[in-house]
Write a structure and sequence with these properties.
This protein is α/β, with parallel strands linked by helices and 296 residues long. The protein has ten helices and eleven strands. The chain has a six-stranded parallel sheet, sandwiched between helices. The chain is globular and about 50 Å long. The structure holds guanine. Guanine binds next to strand 4 and helix 6.
Length: 296
Amino acid sequence: MSAKILSGKEVAATLREGIAAAASACTAKGTVPGLGVVLVGDDPASRSYVSAKEKACTDCGIYSQEIHLPADAARDDILAAVEGLNENRDIHGILVQLPLPDSSIEREVITTIRPEKDVDGFHPVNVGRMVLGLPAFLPCTPHGVLHLIRHTGVPLAGAEVVIIGRSQIVGQPLAILLSRKWEMGNATVTLCHTRTRDLTAHTRRADIVVAAAGRPGTLTGDMIRDGAVVIDVGVNRIPDASRKSGFRLVGDADFDSCAEKAAWITPVPGGVGPMTITMLLHNVVQAAGGVVVSDR
Ligand code: GUN
């Protein structure tokens, strides 16, 4: 293996020091930053993400409150939970864990969150502001990926970045942020997806490849050039009888073959995941009026 490990755990730990300091300053002024979480159903992965977010809040001095609804909760009950958090003065940020058991109501639920409490950055107002380059809550995973790339020291300006996966949560916003004229952008971005004709032709010329397709084995070593940066956004559960849990986590990139050629590669777990949570904490503190120093 020649690649250096791009540890999200380590980068996140440094960022969280600044976030905890900002949360503490907020608290000293009389406002404890607060996150309201809505979890619908008992999907184990969603349960695990929500628990990790709540623990991270506690560690950073952020108050969190969870509303857990059954998988068959009525649309009106989910909307009422969000509206309650909208009105709650102790809550500055709201997160509805996705996917919802009934995905057809996701858009309506997200749009019910007050934009000034939308710490996921999923509300159309925040998406629009982000696209226009106006101040907005940035979506957490793309924002975390930007910080990871910055940590490598590889200049983004003029870099060829290939993103695999056009999701509304990761691929699309990341393409916008990376191509924006700002200190974390100025890259030449190619957004690849399931209809891309020759994926390897794109990934082989990339300085930075972001794998965010949600499918293991999407990126293999033969698809990248020597010295590339590989950011693996994938979190896939693979059955593994040797583990107590019965599964293990793998990314979208084949770690071993990519690590042989890449200059930097993120591990799964411990790569993008901790960064997503960190940028959520950042947004909650910002929503509470806190100023996070050295976050950009
Ligand atoms: N599901 C997968 N990623 C996310 C995220 O960043 N926020 C929320 N709310 N749900 C998710």
